[in-house]
Amino acid sequence: MMQQHMPSMINNVAVVGGTHGNEYTGVFCVKALERQLQQQDIQNRIRYPFHLSTVIGNPVAHIQNKRFVDTDLNRQFSYDALQKAKSISRSTSQNIMVEQQRALELNELLGPKQFHDDVDDDVPPKMDLIIDLHTTTTNMGVTIIVGQDDVLTTQCAAYVLQRCPFTTRILIHTHANQKERPHLSSIAKHAFTIEVGAVPQGVVRHDKVEEMQTALRLTLEFLQRWHDGQQEQLYNELIEHFDSGNVPCYRSAPAIREGEMSAKLQWPSSKDNPNFPLWIVHKSVQDRDFTQIQTGDPLFVDLDGTVIPYDGAYGSPIILMFINEGGYYYGSSGTGISVAVQDEFDLETGSLLSTNNRKMSMTRTNSNDNDNNNNDDIKKNGQQQQQPVETAATTTTTTSEL
Amino acid sequence: MMQQHMPSMINNVAVVGGTHGNEYTGVFCVKALERQLQQQDIQNRIRYPFHLSTVIGNPVAHIQNKRFVDTDLNRQFSYDALQKAKSISRSTSQNIMVEQQRALELNELLGPKQFHDDVDDDVPPKMDLIIDLHTTTTNMGVTIIVGQDDVLTTQCAAYVLQRCPFTTRILIHTHANQKERPHLSSIAKHAFTIEVGAVPQGVVRHDKVEEMQTALRLTLEFLQRWHDGQQEQLYNELIEHFDSGNVPCYRSAPAIREGEMSAKLQWPSSKDNPNFPLWIVHKSVQDRDFTQIQTGDPLFVDLDGTVIPYDGAYGSPIILMFINEGGYYYGSSGTGISVAVQDEFDLETGSLLSTNNRKMSMTRTNSNDNDNNNNDDIKKNGQQQQQPVETAATTTTTTSEL
Q1: Which of A210, A400, B281, B293 has the fewest CB neighbours in a 10 Å radius?
Q2: Which parts of the sequence belong to the Succinylglutamate desuccinylase/Aspartoacylase catalytic domain (chains A, B) (predicted)?
Q3: Torsion angle, alpha carbons of B10, B12, B13, B18, to 10
């Protein structure tokens, strides 16, 4: 059965690399794509049926081989952050940060950001879809990051997941709307991120370039078929593979501390260098992204060699991801290790099963204290791990990080 | 048999981390050592019989999480570079670079650099020995880097090599004298570098911290025993292990291009970013440090995916090291992959066997064109690989890089 939604039009697509200036793999893949498009141009061949743009996200930081100059660019695209940047740019007394300025430029070039829940009220953004290319120093393999409830991008993610010849996972943003999402890709109508690791910052590895290029090629292949009106055929192919109608994915656990986007196991920083960790990730956890730890398991180690165990704050057992990500040594990027929740989304609607279950359970209990019911639902869906404690209040601030 | 040289006095030792600001492991180990010394101070215990100082090599670059601010600090300590920095610092019209300024400070603090071949003419440096802690993004494991003809540090390297429970190698500088060496450690009487990989820049891995700490602990243990007058006992222990009297090591192959410190297989850089590679290291070579390649083997790949094979410029087969080192994306650090030569040094004198053989062969042939004789000598010493073409003129510019 085909979904009821009107299929999104795909006429303008941007591929962005270097949103974090020291993530060289994305920049290399953007440059390789530019070469490919140039060659086609010389040969008068049009490969893609939509307009395909390439962009270096943060060229100033890239030249400096830094994640960012002043603050993380990929946290500057919430509606509020853009409004703030706009107001500073108009002010004669305040200095605008490099990344605030760049966010305004990119919003002009690829956006503008839609700021209503009902997108019909907004000026449509120039890009129908942004594919943002990222790397991580963690052993995450290839991870496709998309928002929930977006039929186009969740099905595209399922398409890449099914066809990639190497380990690939889907990570779902649980933000209800585009307005709050701080990521560069959120200024287009649809957001799609390809995250590849492990690769050091400021280094290009051929094997990781190939993984990113394969995921990118499959993404563009899906978009091309979607543009050509093959939505029903794509859905039928996917449902044949995901025959329950559900696609396995991960999402970030909700934050329990105010101001955080999502659950983080944090380390303290050095007094004389706020970006230098005073505790480091314990070797028993290093490189073991998407595996479980329990309360009392070694998690960090300090300068004296003292082991700091997991304190159980997010429940037990929990799944970790972005373990020892170099970018997360920075406060403005969100210090710490992310806590992941195993989930599934509905292929037809792109909605997370846990969200649906939570909504049902909230209606049923008419209370915010729905943890037990929610855990029951999760178990019914065949999940292995226990969910961390979450409340309706924290759920709205949840997102995945990249 | 004990060597004839007078044993060096070890009264002042400095441990330096962060000579490259984004090599976090060395900084973490320096901070951990500072904690250890502080604890001993509180307990009124003196663990080391010599004065042990700790230094952050490039604190400005470290705060910025960059290898360097203006230019590679670890290339600023040749006699000529220090003289140039001194002259700029006195000039009112010229701006001094951050690393030139820091080189002068460190030379004052830990040196001064000895500039005569016969060191008796010089003011003795404040430090008898500098242990400089480095990391690499390459899969080199633990590498101890010392100069040739130095009995103290070559025996210390052999001591660490023998006792480390993980893969450890020795890399020997073939500079004839201290004067030309551009490295920070060369301003002390004796230079000792511990290089650990693979670890991303700007990231601390617990397993790599442990490797660096083990190598550092063994180094300090050797120095302590040396200080305590156990030179003969140390030598006897080592000769029992290295019973031929020869210790296996590597050295850099000589440069064939003017201005280079040592043999490098280079990639071209992007026009719009001189530190961004236009070619990347082929996946068949990645992570295979200290293995051989032959003429025609895949070496690089370009933006179009075209494979660039090894052209045989340094002979065939050759051994590679520092394969895809993130620091070597910078011109001032020496762009490219290093070519290694397998060698051995004499435990009694610290002299390289190949150098001894070359000297003999040069006397014998009375000619610079001694490649064939040299290759014969190498083969006699049980080496596997062919030596690259080298002449007396290029030999003097050879060094290992870090």
Answers
A1: A210
A2: 11-220
A3: -160
B116 and B24 belong to one structural domain = yes
Please indicate, yes or no, if residue B2 is contained in any of the structural domains.
no
What's residue A370's pLDDT?
36
CA distance B12 to B277: 42
Across A128-150, average pLDDT: 97
Q: Residue A153 in 3-state DSSP?
A: helix
Beta carbons within 10 angstroms of residue B311's beta carbon: 11
Query: CB–CB of B275 and A137 under 8 A?
Result: no
Residue found under tokens 């373990």? A323
**Residues A259 and A236 placed together within one structural domain of the fold:** no
* Nearest alpha carbon to residue B350 among B174, B225, B181: B174
Q: How many CA atoms does the CB half-sphere of B211 hold within 13 Å?
A: 26
pLDDT in tens, B226-266: 999 999 999 999 999 999 999 999 999 998 888 777 899 99
Residue of B nearest to A67 (CA): B65
| DSSP structure string for A278-322 | SSEE-TTTTT-TT-EE-TTSEEEE-TT--EEE---TT-SSEEEES
Asked whether residue A151 is domain-assigned, the answer is: yes
What pLDDT digit, counting tens, does each position of A254-294 carry? 988 887 778 999 999 998 899 999 999 999 999 999 999 99
Both B236 and B323 in a single domain?
no
**pLDDT 10s digits, B355-398:** 766 554 444 333 333 333 333 333 333 333 434 433 333 333 33
Give the per-residue SS3 of B175-244: CCCCCCCCCHHHHCCEEEEEEECCCCCCCCCHHHHHHHHHHHHHHHHHHHHHHCCCHHHHHHHHHHHCCC
For chain A, what is the largest distance between any 2 Cα atoms, rounded to a whole number of angstroms?
A: 64
| Judgement on whether residues A376 and A295 belong to the same structural domain of the protein | yes
What's the N-to-C CA distance of chain A in angstroms? 34
Contact residues, chain A to chain B, C-beta under 8 Å: 24, 27-28, 31-32, 35-36, 39, 62-66, 137, 198-207, 209-210, 270, 273, 275-277, 280-283, 286, 301, 303-305, 324, 326, 329
Residues of A in contact with B204 (CB under 8 A): 277, 280, 324
What ipTM is given for this predicted complex?
Answer: 0.88
- pLDDT score of B43: 86
Contacts of B359 (CB under 8 A, 6+ apart): none
Chain B residues with CB under 8 Å of A206 CB are: 280-283, 286, 301
Q: In whole numbers, what is the pLDDT of chain B averaged over residues?
A: 87
Which domain covers residue B362, as residue numbers?
264-395
Which of A39, A139, A280 is the best mutation test for B, with the most CBs of B within 10 A? A280
Tell me how far apart the alpha carbons of residues A14 and A55 are, in angstroms, rounded to a whole number: 7
Task: Point out the domain boundary residue: A215, A241, A267.
Answer: A241
